[in-house]
């Protein structure tokens, strides 16, 4: 199967699922794409018992496509830029302390607690693994996924303060979580083990460099966009900013995801401040919204299809469900501790922590990081577990968030 044939098949499936969801199901799009992709994957695996060559061909095509490179190497830049383009800086400014705390200190605490909990869980199940790979697993599922979170926010009617906290935290903690994962991965890679000081410097370089790069890219992009009034050129400039900027960050060894969040926030807000014409702003917003929808559809379908590569392992998938419950509990504990330690409760509406905990979904970034684990760090254990965490997050948390909101808002404060 050629790359074009595979890509065409994937886009056709995504378009078909989008039609079925818009026409009949009317559920959160990303979640339904994931579930329908899982359904197709199970069908492919079942058909393999009749025609083994078919399943082998599909698995081979999925392996050649390389989900990790597809998401982390290219698509993530577009999705993060598009997602942050619509977030208002003035709303973020009102809750910046909680977003900063949850997306840095909260991620570090959650990584440690989930890693320790996973270590204990695996040993109780008879799987003897060192602590460091478990901490890597904690790093890849502790942060919430902005792609999944922003998708579910479109279907809910949240208090603006809570919505900004959830969206802002997911945008920044994802980038910071990737930095933590990369730092731990370097520590875990065989060879010369870096000291705690060098690991901290790596973390600072990745995160601080990404934020700085995002600011520089946004400034250059803004200056170029402001000097022309030709929406086709301005759309191309934003595309160049995302693609060229992400590639540059990769070459410099700084966080591309954090850079894209900063650039998207800056470009989106200056475009609303009158720096560009109304026509340009309208085209920019519609272009990035359409691209975001298409890439999200393809991504979630591909996530479901990855089950063909991962396989159905009841033991590890069951451990993954247990890890998903653990991650959910840890998230609530960490949010509560961070809120209490930093005195943030006064700026949060009632029951915010319960909503932030349940609404903190995991998605494609966690799966991409797991699929990219080297052989020595036990991907055969952590990939199916991560897939189960993502599926649990989508089905159990994503599909019940509206009901939870209704129940919480109906109770007296």
UniProtKB/TrEMBL annotation:
Membrane topology category: Multi-pass membrane protein
Domain of life (superkingdom): Bacteria
Record has Magnesium as a keyword: no
Location(s), subcellular: Cell membrane
Membrane-spanning parts: 6-22, 29-50, 70-87, 99-124, 130-153, 207-225, 245-267, 355-375, 381-401
Residues annotated as domain Cation/H+ exchanger transmembrane: 13-405
UniProt keyword annotations, A-Z: Antiport, Cell membrane, Ion transport, Membrane, Sodium, Sodium transport, Transmembrane, Transmembrane helix, Transport
Presence of the UniProt keyword Cytoplasm in the record: no
Family listed: Belongs to the monovalent cation:proton antiporter 1 (CPA1) transporter (TC 2.A.36) family.
Protein name: CPA1 family monovalent cation:H+ antiporter
Upper lineage: Bacteria, Pseudomonadati, Bacteroidota, Cytophagia, Cytophagales
């Amino acid at each position: 199967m050629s790359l074009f044939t595979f890509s065409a098949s994937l886009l056709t499936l995504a378009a078909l699922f989008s039609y079925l969801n818009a026409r009949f199901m009317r559920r959160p799009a990303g979640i339904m794409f994931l579930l329908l992709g899982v359904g197709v994957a199970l069908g492919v695996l079942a058909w393999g018992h009749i025609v083994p060559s078919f399943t082998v061909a599909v698995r081979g095509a999925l392996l050649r496509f390389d989900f990790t490179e597809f998401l982390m190497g290219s698509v993530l830049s577009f999705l993060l830029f598009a997602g942050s383009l619509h977030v208002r800086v003035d709303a973020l400014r009102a809750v910046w302390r909680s977003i900063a705390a949850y997306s840095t200190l909260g991620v570090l605490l959650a990584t440690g607690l989930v890693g320790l909990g996973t270590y204990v869980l695996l040993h109780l199940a008879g799987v003897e693994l060192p602590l460091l790979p478990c901490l890597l697993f904690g790093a890849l599922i502790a942060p919430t996924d902005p792609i999944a979170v922003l998708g579910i926010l479109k279907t809910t009617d949240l208090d603006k303060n809570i919505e900004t906290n959830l969206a802002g935290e997911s945008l920044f903690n994802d980038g910071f979580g990737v930095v933590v994962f990369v730092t731990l991965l370097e520590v875990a890679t065989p060879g010369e083990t870096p000291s705690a000081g060098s690991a901290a410097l790596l973390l600072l370089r990745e995160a601080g460099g990404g934020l700085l790069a995002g600011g520089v890219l946004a400034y250059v992009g803004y200056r170029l966009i402001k000097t022309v009034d030709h929406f086709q050129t301005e759309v191309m400039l934003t595309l160049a900013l995302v693609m060229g900027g992400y590639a540059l960050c990769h070459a410099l060894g700084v966080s591309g995801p954090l850079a894209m969040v900063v650039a998207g926030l800056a470009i989106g807000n200056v475009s609303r401040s009158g720096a560009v014409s109304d026509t340009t702003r309208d085209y920019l917003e519609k272009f990035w919204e359409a691209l975001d929808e298409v890439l999200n559809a393809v991504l979630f379908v591909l996530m479901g299809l990855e089950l063909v590569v991962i396989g159905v392992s009841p033991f590890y998938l069951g451990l993954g469900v247990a890890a998903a419950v653990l991650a959910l509990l840890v998230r609530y504990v960490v949010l509560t501790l961070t809120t209490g330690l930093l005195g943030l409760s006064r700026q949060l509406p009632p029951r915010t922590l319960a909503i932030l905990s349940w609404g903190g979904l995991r998605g494609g970034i966690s799966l991409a990081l797991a699929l990219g684990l080297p052989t020595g760090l036990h991907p055969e254990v952590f990939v199916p577990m991560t897939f189960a965490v993502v599926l649990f997050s989508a089905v159990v948390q994503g599909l019940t968030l509206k009901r939870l909101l209704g129940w919480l808002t109906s109770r007296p404060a």
